[in-house]
Amino acid sequence: MDLANIPLEQLNVSPLNMRASRKKPKFDDILPSIRERGVLVPLLVRPNGTEHQFEIVAGRRRFFASKAIEKETGEARALPCRVLAAGDDAAAIEASILENVARAQPDEMQEFEAFKALADKGREIDDIARIFGVTELTVKRRLALANLIPAIRKAYAEGEIGGASITALTLASEAKQREWLAMFQADDMRAPRGRELKRWLLGGGEIETSFALFSLETYDGDIFEDLFGERSVFADAELFWKHQTVAIEAEKEKLLASGWTNVTVLERGAFFSRWDYAGATKKQGGEVFIEARHSGEIVFHKGYAQRKSEKAKAKKSTDRPECSAPLENYVDLHRHAAARAVMLNHQGVALRLLAAHLMVGTPNIRTQPDPQRTRKEETAASVAASKGQKAIEKERAAIADLLGLEEPAHITGGNEDGWQLATVFVRLMKLCDDDISRILTFIMAETLAAGHEGVDCLAQAIPTTISAWMTPYEAFFDLLRDKKIANAMLKDIAGSDVAAANKDATAKAQKQIIRDCLDGKNGRKKTRNWRPRWLQFPALSYTDTGKPGAVRNAEKIAPLFAE
Question: How many C-beta neighbours within 10 Å does residue 75 have?
Answer without folding.
Answer: 8
